[in-house]
Amino acid sequence: MKTLLQNFRIVDASIDAIGAVILHDEIIRDVWVKGEAIRYDIGRMGIDRVIDGGGLTLMPAFIDMHAHFRDPGFPEKETLESASLAALAGGYTTVICMANTKPVIDTFEAAQALKHRSNALRLIDLYPALALTRSMAGTELASGFSALDLIRTSALKDIALGFSWPGPRYVRLCSEDGKDVADDALFKEALVRAAALRLPVSCHCDAGGHEALQAWEAGQPYSIWSRIEENVATERAIRLGREAGAHVHIAHVSTKEALARIRAAKARGESVSCEVTPHHLCLTESDAASLGSESYGRVNPPLRNEEDRQALIAGLVDGSIDAIATDHAPHTSGDKEHGSPGFSGLETSFAACFTELVGKGHLSLSRLSALMSVAPARLLRLFDRGAIEPGLLADLVVVDTEAVWHVDTALFRSRGKNSAFSGRALSGKTLMTLHAGSVVFDRGFGAKL
Predict the structure, then answer these.
(1) What is the pLDDT of residues 98-108, one digit of tens each?
(2) Cα(349)–Cα(372) distance, integer angstroms
(3) Whole-model pTM over 0.70
(4) What is the pLDDT of residues 94-131, one digit of tens each?
(5) C-alpha–C-alpha distance, residues 141 and 182, integer Å
(6) What is the DSSP letter of 220?
(7) Which residue in 327, 335, 395, 400 is the catalytic one?
(8) 198 within domain boundaries
(9) Omega of the bond prior to 301 within 30 degrees of 0, cis?
(10) Catalytic: 183?
């Protein structure tokens, strides 16, 4: 089927102009960008469907490098289906989900099974992260990193023998997520094995060592010892990644000191990247206090001070930070009241970033698109998406940059209603999401066609 999307403001990392796009089935076939109205002979071109944007904005769908889907094991928090619907409502069609499920995703077979379940829903492209150690216990490598196990598993033989790239099609990232591998030798061995499979390793960076433990034992507040944890662990991950020859990706950077370490490593030419979350870009510890520092405002790493927040924005501006990731972490109300850390972020991510970064003049919309689409695509070696170019996957999102809306968590598709932006007015709203050329989410925009 051929689809014409016309009269859109087309925005990606390199385009910001009025134009039109033709899709052929699941692929972008043609892109026209002009400064005047464009007319087509729809009959001659064999167009089956026309979507008229009326001046709305068309962007590449977003790609999330860090989300918690809680499936399998925690249906009261989230399910594969509810998380996928939340992703689409936020304009995301590609998501990396963390491995801290029940059971833990610590084998390629488990990752493959979850991806097959996701594929059957035909909603998003899901790539489960693979844990580094068995059950995330930190005592022995996960079976996926054993060369012997790889060779014994017939479905993975060509991966183990080096016949194919990019590795297992259903795994793009490794991570212990909410806990670091404490033992240096084991962590380094995991990094070596990940490098052999050409998989980046996302590091949560909370192994703060003796210094952080001392601060905690001395009764220092969470804001102090968690800062030490992040800074020390970031330096450790960079060092061990360098020694192992691995690509280290630092998750949800939140302190100016950690960012400085990453910037220095990049200046040395080391294979390091990092992400930042919308809540760390938009909010501070005072917002956490208003929400309840030990309940609805608790997140790991915690919301920091204004100086840290401004440093993160500067890191986006100068390119030190590579991508924006949601760290979507749905919880029940009871869990949040008892201090479970994290926010539901998929459905507010674009609007929060648009409001704070584009609305206040820090970034252009093209730069925001790069951070949310093409940059994570390249980090994950997904070269078939992230931009609006002929030949790429037709994963697109229609947004209204003029819309102002109030966050009502009762309307969330996610089962987790624990939003850091609940009740806030945000600018920029996702109206429609297309995945592989099919409309998979429509907030009523389609009814106007």
Answers:
(1) 999 999 999 98
(2) 9
(3) yes
(4) 999 999 999 999 998 899 999 999 999 999 999 999 99
(5) 13
(6) -
(7) 327
(8) yes
(9) yes
(10) no
